[in-house]
Each structure stands twice: as C-alpha cells, then as structure tokens.
Amino acid sequence: MSLKGRTAFVTGAGGGVGEGIALALGKAGANVVVAARRLETGEPVAARIREGGGEAICVQTDVADEQSVFAAIGKTVSTYNGLDILVHNALSGRATDRTPIADAPEDLFDDVVATGSRATFWCVKAALPHLQRGKGRVVLLLAHGGVRGHGSLSIYGVAKGMQRGNLKALTWELGGRGVSINAIVPVALTDGMARDFERRPGEYERQAARSALGYIGKPEEDIGGAAVFFASDAARYVTGQTLFVDGGVYML
C-alpha cells in the first residue's frame, strides 16, 4: 500500500488521531501536509515525519474559515505540485462537552458544526479540482455518536451525523470525477485520553473491556493503518463506506 509520490493534506494533525494518521501516511511514502490550527502543535508532527525519512510541512489552517482552507490547499499544491489525498479529522475542542440540549448555548452548536460538517464542505470544495486530476482519495473521521448517538452529546452527534450524510451524497458526486470517499470511526488512545486515565485508576481497563480485542487502538498503527488503506490503490474500488476501527466495540 505504497503512497510514494502522492501528497496528503491532513486536518487536525497537530495531535491525537490526526497526528497518528499523518505519521502513518508519511511512513507509507506520502508527502504530508500537517494542517493544524496552531503551528506549535503541527510543526513537531511534520518534524517527526521528516526525521523518519519522509517529506512533510506544516500549514496553519482554521478549517472553519473558508479562506484559510483554500489558502492551505493552495500552499499544498504549490509546494508539491498537486494533491492526491484529503483527510478531514479536525474537531472542535468543545465537541465532546457533555452538555444536555436544554442547556446548550447556540455558539456551541455553531462551533461544533463549523469544524465538522461545514469544514467538510470547504475542504472538499477546495481540494476537488486537484483530486480529480489523479487517483483522488477523501477520508473523513466520524464518531460513534454520529451513528448510534450518545447521551448529553447531542450536538456532537448532529455534527458527525451531518458528515455521514455528506459522505453518502459526495460518494456519487465525487465518483463521477474518479475520486473515492470513505470514513473511519475510530477508538484510539490519544495523549489526552491517556492523561485522563492516569487520573482515574482502572478506567483504561474498563474502556478496553468494551473492545472484543481487549485493548484501545493506537492512533498511528491502528487508525493510521486504515487511513493508508483507503488512500492506497488497495482500496481503489471502495467508496461510500464507513469503517469502524474500534476493536469490535460497535458492529453493524
């Protein structure tokens, strides 16, 4: 599943699942553009890819801002003479606030939807003219909340549900242009989750027990591996699919 010679743009790649995907794509040979809202988080990820022998740059990007997205895609294309892979992973820092709908402020809804569904629109719109020139791939990062719902996470569920609707509609529009689009629903042990587990003895074991495999996935090896698959020629006839990379926590 070599990605040598291809260029990938990964949003929210300054940490967590986005970082893991960026590192995996770099190891597979792709030129990686680490799109992060803050350079201080994104540049170290790009540096890790370069230290491992890969090619990467960091571009400051606010996915909720149309001009910022188009500028970042433009920088990607001018640097690497094209764009082949778009991974939209960025998530509002407020997305998982456990706020009942009766108490949720309007700005929370706007913020979460802006980095989810609206940002999907901007990212695909900016990238499509370049993706359709080759073996274009789009990968969205979704969540369990957008499929089966979670209590007190209704806004997050709405945003992710909207993205899944985007996926289904875009499958047909992009397919006619030779571009595939798929989604990953991950469960991964991010740094933030690990810090939370340190404060809550036994929580890792409780969460790991939800998985049929008995552990929580790793951002690079497990989630990143699925992203590499979708970005590669091995998935050239796969589109419109949602893959749960969660150790069997949820099964359709």
UniProtKB/TrEMBL annotation:
Protein name from the UniProt record: Short-chain dehydrogenase
Pfam families from the UniProt entry: adh_short_C2
Family (UniProt): Belongs to the short-chain dehydrogenases/reductases (SDR) family.
Ranges in a coiled coil: none
CDD domains linked to this entry: SDR_c
